[in-house]
Known about the structure:
It is a single chain. The protein is an alpha/beta fold. Helix 1 links the parallel strand 1 and strand 2. Helices cover 44% and strands 15% of the residues. Helix 1 (16-29) packs parallel to helix 12 and helix 11 runs parallel beside helix 12. The chain has helices at 16-29, 47-53, 80-85, 96-101, 106-118, 131-135, 139-150, 156-159, 180-197, 200-205, 216-223, 240-249, and strands spanning 5-9, 37-41, 59-63, 90-93, 122-127, 163-166, 207-211, 230-233. The longest helix has 18 residues, at 180-197. It starts with a strand and ends with a helix. The protein is built from twelve helices and eight strands. It has an eight-stranded parallel β-barrel with strand order 1-2-3-4-5-6-7-8, surrounded by six helices. The mean pLDDT is 97. It binds 2-phosphoglycolic acid. The site of 2-phosphoglycolic acid has 13 residues, from strand 8.
Amino acid sequence: MRTPIIAGNxxxxxxxxxxxxLTTALKASVADVADVxxxxxxxxxxxxxxxxxxxxxxxRLSAQDVxxxxxxxxxxxxSAPMLKDVGCDYVIIxxxxxxxxxxxxxxxxxxxxxxxxxxxxxPIICVGEQLEERETGQTETVIDDHVTGGIAGLxxxxxxxxxxxxxxxxxxxxxxxxTPAQAxxxxxxxxxxxxxxxxxxxxxxxRIQYGGSVKPENASELMAQPDxxxxxxxxxxxxxxxxxxxxxxx
Length: 250
Ligand code: PGA
């Protein structure tokens, strides 16, 4: 019932020509995949070229961030109408690297989510605990805080346009993946939260991705968990072959 979604977060990587080469190779590798939503998130500079490359294919475009205002004196920012204009369907919001290095808060995440939805962009809202938070038993408190803060004030219909990505910070780029059981436990906890903040229907229908060192070797056992609906992939999305393998494991 929930269509799996595999998204590649390219982070601060790939020039325009490199992005086009990666997309061209990926397009060929996943051409016959029909039952999985495939998304790539290049840097802002490569969005237009990647959008032209994926035309008519089964790959969708995402940005890695968005600003909460539509236009104005906000030097260096990119707005939801601009992302829509360049061909994005999705936008990643609240990635842990943005929270850690760029001062993103639950409040700014919530404002960005609302700005994205107002322009028909689907937010991929990232949540996740740090290692010391897990080790001191605070995982559920942190996830509760990130989820309820990020989605505050959304209607059921708005929330169903979103995807939540559970990304334990200690698993991002470290090679240390959460075990399938650890991922399942948090995903199930998030569905419980959604039942309280919104409705049973939203809790059942909303897609929750896992992210953090997802690779071809561990993708299938993570995807096999009942509440894991896909993956947000960093490192392994930078090569067409490894990303395509993950897509095909679903
Ligand atoms: P990783 O990154 O797959 O390289 O751990 C995941 C992410 O940050 O979205």
